[in-house]
Amino acid sequence: MPTCARVYRNCSRVSDCVGFYKRRNVSECRNVAPEFHFLSIGRMPKAKVIPLPVPAPPAETKNRILDAAEKLFMEHGYEATSLRAITTAAEVNLAAVNYHFGSKEELFEAVLTRRLDPMNQQRLELLTRFEGEAAPKPLGCDRILTALLIPALKLARDPKRGGSNFLRLLGRAYADPAPFIRQFLSEQYAVMIGRFKAAFSRALPNMPSKELSWRLHFIMGALSYTLAGTDALKLIAELNPHETTNDELLLRRLGPFLLAGLTAPLPDLRAVTRELEDEPAPRRH
Asked: Domains in the chain, start-ordered, CATH in brackets?
């Protein structure tokens, strides 16, 4: 029996088919819709494949969260930035944040660590190189400050590493009153600060250790305040609109100021101590 008659034995027009005993392929029959031609060859057509959405790799998701958090923390600060805002900006759910970081505090620390670790490592490598070039003499304070500032300048020029946005976030982090941020920065900078303090101690052998610690504290404070983009900078921007948005120019202006403060004569604190001792004790009501 011809194929068409076997498959379509109930077809009312089979007997009218011209060449009924010659047609072996349903596709030749004008009475059969094209979508049923596969029946004549005995196999099903290929199913249409509907692609399912492919989940992003874990590393990509993690970086997207970090990028979104970095931008929002810089714009609004730690306290004013919610996890909901971060997940919305990163186009992820809260479970992804919890999986990769655990909490908002840990996410903030990860945002800082991602940029700080490479920058501090560059500072240490640069300081080691400068000391090797100056040996056997101690490295001068200007070169030590250069080793401290150049990695920050490079980061400011590199948007792929956070650029000026991260430096401003770092400035905000220094000024943030949250105890965990201060503790984290203290631990994060401990090795680097200790290394630079040792270099400054060799460059300034007559500087008492306590006084040097204060001056390094002032240096880091001035650096963070400058990078934070505070209201004071907005006032200066009215006179120098191009300079206050250029972190490279700001840091180059800051360098000589820091050097002058670092190498200034020791203050005479004895008079201040006597004045404090001579002040009457506050009355108790």
From this structure: 3-40 (no CATH), 57-102 (1.10.10.60), 113-267 (1.10.357.10)
